[in-house]
Amino acid sequence: MAYTPRSDFLHAIQSRGFLADCTDLEALDEKLRSGPQTAYIGYDATAASLHVGHQMNIMVLRWFQKTGNRPVTLMGGGTTKVGDPSFRSDERPLLTPGAIDGNIDRMKQAFSAFLDYGDGATDAVMLNNAEWLDGLKYLDFLRDIGRHFSVNRMLSFESVKSRLDREQSLSFLEFNYMILQAYDFMELYRRENCILQMGGSDQWGNIVNGIDLTRRVVDKEVYGLTTPLLTTSDGRKMGKSAGGAVWLNADMLSPYEYWQFWRNTTDADVGRFLKLFTELPVDECERLGALEGSEINEAKALLATEVTTLMHGAEAAATAAKTAREVFEKGGIGDDLPTLILSTEDVSEGISVVQLIVRSGLAKSGKDAKRLIAENGARLNDEPLTDAGLMIDVEALAGPIKLSAGKKRHALVTLEN
Predict the structure, then answer these.
(1) 315-338: per-residue pLDDT in tens?
(2) Could you tell me how far CA 231 lies from the centroid of its own chain?
(3) For the chain, how many structural domains are there in total?
């Protein structure tokens, strides 16, 4: 019989579908019932914004805080300089320290929407592992920490093994990553009494390494918990859309586009996503997910509005929903659509509609835009667009024009004032 957790946190995440594996579920449950605890998730600063693929684990931290515990967001100012090789086919491009710090500053925006930071007992804390990793002395580190790691065991972890099985190069720099992540866990236990590391299931090997290291060096028991790697019902990796990554920062993806991403959820995913990405009661999520026909579309709109409210606030969510109604129900332009603003110089000699489709984010390349037109998937001001050679001039942009890719993706093109 499966163990049923009694602590508020584990009960919440198990009932909502967040729990994949735990190193010792019963012992962790008992620890959580003894009083407030500290847990962390690590985030490398490889981009200027987090994306929807990160959002499930941010929600785990949110539930951890809501159930009376203290979450730590650990920023990888140090580990980003190495790069996590887990399940990657190649090495990440290395970033400069300045670029890494800039990315961390930008990523804070998303965390602050979900977590309450401060100095209280259960307030969230943001730390940067560069604080302890940048000052490590290499020979001391090898002697004191490296001796606890078996290369044979490290090679057996699936995240590394899959790379080697495909005969793809794994640099010595990347191979150090799992040792550094393990050191992070031990250091957070020492500094913050952090007893739990959480992450996606692809981080299982790294988490177990940290637990073993802490037990060997500090002689303390800590725990690991993973969430399932999230894919949509049709097998796609969560966090991607036809236009690329679904960023959380509003200056990289508008609240309307973010709302629309969630509104486009397939019927089969609605109930599951409501449980994972909103705070609606589980029974209500399941009821909404079981709806059919036009009613499931109402559930999708509710999903989009609830998630957008968490990320961007109630006003932005309401505006996005209003724009969607104007665009889809009334055939209007909508005030909050993604907008491409051109200068008069851009169109002094005319600009091709193919370029506009690409620059507005409705297609990744000119080839994709031409295919969209050829397959009758493009519209200009709600009329079918059939001429890939059409040129748009200043006169045509006397007022905003609306471009559409399919029925659900739209953008405005206008001239600067």
Answers:
(1) 999 998 888 877 765 555 555 677
(2) 12
(3) 3
